[in-house]
Please model this.
Amino acid sequence: MKITIDIECTPEEARTFMGLPDVTPMQKAVMEKLQDRLEETVDSFDPQMMMRTWFPDAAKGWEQWRDVFWTAAKGGKSQKDD
Model:
């Protein structure tokens, strides 16, 4: 035997019926704190510092690539040849 019951209710009504606590105020407070921290982080965002932190040796690699491209753009003369 199979019995199916469809109940139409809002999430708040279902939570109350099941005896679960309303965590909406807590969620709101946590989200406000998270938003404040994100805004602080965005205000102090420095892409160069992020790259140095995440990829400490990347600057050397980029400098080498820059030198290769400059050498090619100069027609094969390196800065050391000047």
The CA atoms of residues 14 and 37 lie 33 Å apart.
